[in-house]
Amino acid sequence: MTVGQNIHSSPIPVLCHSCEARHSGVCGALDPDQLVRFAETTTRHKIEPGGALIGDAEPVYSYSNLLSGVVKLTKTLSDGRQQIVGLQFSPDFLGRPFKLESAINAEAATSVTLCSFPRAAVERMMKESPELEHRLFKQTLNELDDARELMVTLGRKTAPEKVASFLLMIGRNMHSGVDSAERPTCFDLPLTRAEISDFLGLTNETVSRQLTRLRADGVIRIENKRHVTVDSMSRLEQRCGGRVAPL
Amino acid sequence: MTVGQNIHSSPIPVLCHSCEARHSGVCGALDPDQLVRFAETTTRHKIEPGGALIGDAEPVYSYSNLLSGVVKLTKTLSDGRQQIVGLQFSPDFLGRPFKLESAINAEAATSVTLCSFPRAAVERMMKESPELEHRLFKQTLNELDDARELMVTLGRKTAPEKVASFLLMIGRNMHSGVDSAERPTCFDLPLTRAEISDFLGLTNETVSRQLTRLRADGVIRIENKRHVTVDSMSRLEQRCGGRVAPL
DNA sequence: CGGCAGCTTGAGTCAATTCAAGGCCTGTGG
DNA sequence: CCACAGGCCTTGAATTGACTCAAGCTGCCG
User: Fold this and answer.
1) Three-state DSSP class for residue A107
2) SS3 for B213?
3) HTH crp-type domain location, by residue (chains A, B) (predicted)?
4) What is the pLDDT of residues B25-55, one digit of tens each?
5) Are B98 and A141 in contact (CB under 8 A)?
6) How far is CA A132 from CA A243, B80, B106, in A?
7) Please, which residues have CB within 8 angstroms of residue B130's CB and are 6 or more apart in sequence?
């Protein structure tokens, strides 16, 4: 999976031209000149489901933009119990700045494409461009919000509510058009039942039973185990446990 | 503890001189001149346990340095179920930058002292000093690490493991001297049993039972319901569920 | 074709909850 | 000074939601 023809003269690197993350991801923080220098160090990768992104011996993956696919971040206890502590979608930035040891593992949940860069290049660029650091900061704040939302789900919701909340979250992240609360939404689950259970702190059997129940109740339809259609998102929302009431 | 000795042309504000957060907190990012301007807008507050920090109608609390005490961050479902999604200790910075609506409530768990500043002052200072934003970024990354650690606890640990993990975390955050794994550590619990249960996703009865069990097993001693002594931290650690295995 | 991984479903079990009662402090008012 | 009320905490007994164990289904791949 090599790409990197080094392009020194053109205003904007060819690869970046058509890049999904050119404007929306962290690269949007860079001006053309910075982008050119930065792009010299980047490489594209494709990773199949189950492939490790970090935790293995490949330091080039240290930092990446996620261009497509879903990445799961996991933590594991020594007896094998596992918890998914985050899911990342494009155009998220992958990697933990300012720390060599990541205490989490990152793994491709679906087939994934990355634009990767060496740690040093990112950290140099971050010193140079406060705007880049600013974007990373904002993403981190969003991840923290997501993490805390998931904590409520893990600590205080019932199994039916957990599964409904998961579907709602996935539906919102994988939507490919307008999302009206009343228009049908459909998507492919990026995770297996076992992975969903690691996300929600349940067992795969319980996840399966709850999905069956939602299907029986007419809240969702499922084809081929993975493809889900939600006719009414608001009906699904009702099953997520009462919304948080600020104040 | 001399206050008047090293007076520069831009004297450091008197209040900041003896401030616990002068160097360790976010204020450490500011040079004396910046600090002087910044300090003009700050006010100190003392808040008793149970007092709300945000979520109420007092915008002056929007951002603060936590100088002493413990603050709990909570989320609540509409039927009253509550989850503590974070605990903050001095010299943490309180507040969610770049967002007017915080989806979480912050409340004093113990008696708390704050150094507060208006939102606008912080955001102005942040534009001016990338170092300030950098420190906030780093704290946020640490909070994210903590949040993900807690997710494992919430999703995958048993009640005994949860309570042991909580004690370990508190012990490490409230330690007031050297912490050897084998030397006795003691501290006051900053939370009631009910609050601990909201932190761990349990009921107060279960928390109480597990504390009783740890006491009966000689892992901890408890005086006055709140004061805990851990003779051997490593023994407590053994009850936290296997440590995460990176890779 | 067999083997395997992922998924579903059922039956029985158990950890944590709910419900209930009582003890221990602390502050308050007679 | 004591009596009393209200938090907070502990403990017991009964209940239950999710888990474990087990069996069978499906689709895919060699």
Assistant:
1) strand
2) helix
3) 157-234
4) 888 898 888 888 888 888 888 999 999 887 6
5) yes
6) 34, 40, 30
7) A130, A133
Residue predicted with more confidence, A62 or B151: B151
- Token readout for B94 is 């309180």
Domains assigned to chain B:
14-129 (2.60.120.10), 157-240 (1.10.10.10)
Taking CA atoms, what residue in B is nearest to A155? B201
CB A113 within 8 A of CB A44: yes
Of residues 182 to 211 in chain A, which lie within 7 A of strand C by their beta carbon? Answer: 192-194, 204-205, 207-209, 211
Cβ(B92)–Cβ(B12) below 8 Å: no
The answer to whether the beta carbons of residues B224 and A83 sit under 8 Å apart is no
Strand-by-strand arrangement of the A82-89 sheet: A52-54, A105-108, A70-76, A82-89
- Written as six digits, the tokens of B60 are 């002056």
Distance A125 CA to C5 C1' (A): 44
Task: Compute the average pLDDT of residues B214-238.
Answer: 96
Position of tokens 């050297």? B178
Q: Select the residue of A76, A134, A152 nearest B245 (Cβ to Cβ).
A: A76
Structure-token match 């991840």, residue found: A143
> Chain A closest CA to B173's CA: distance in Å?
19
Contacts of B147 in chain A (CB under 8 A): 144, 147-148, 151
CA of B226 and C1' of D7: distance in angstroms?
Answer: 14
Of residues B10 and A16, more confidently modeled = A16
- Interval B90-124: pLDDT, tens: 999 999 888 766 789 999 999 999 998 888 888 88
In 3D, which of B22, B40, B20 has the Cα closest to residue B31?
B22
Asked if B53 is an interface residue toward chain A (Cβ–Cβ < 8 A), one would say no
Please tell me the number of Cα atoms within 13 Å of B233 on its side-chain side: 18
End-to-end CA distance of chain A: 51
Nearest to A189 by CA among A242, A225, A150: A225
Full 3-state SS string of A62-74: HEEEEEECEEEEE
pLDDT of residue A68: 94
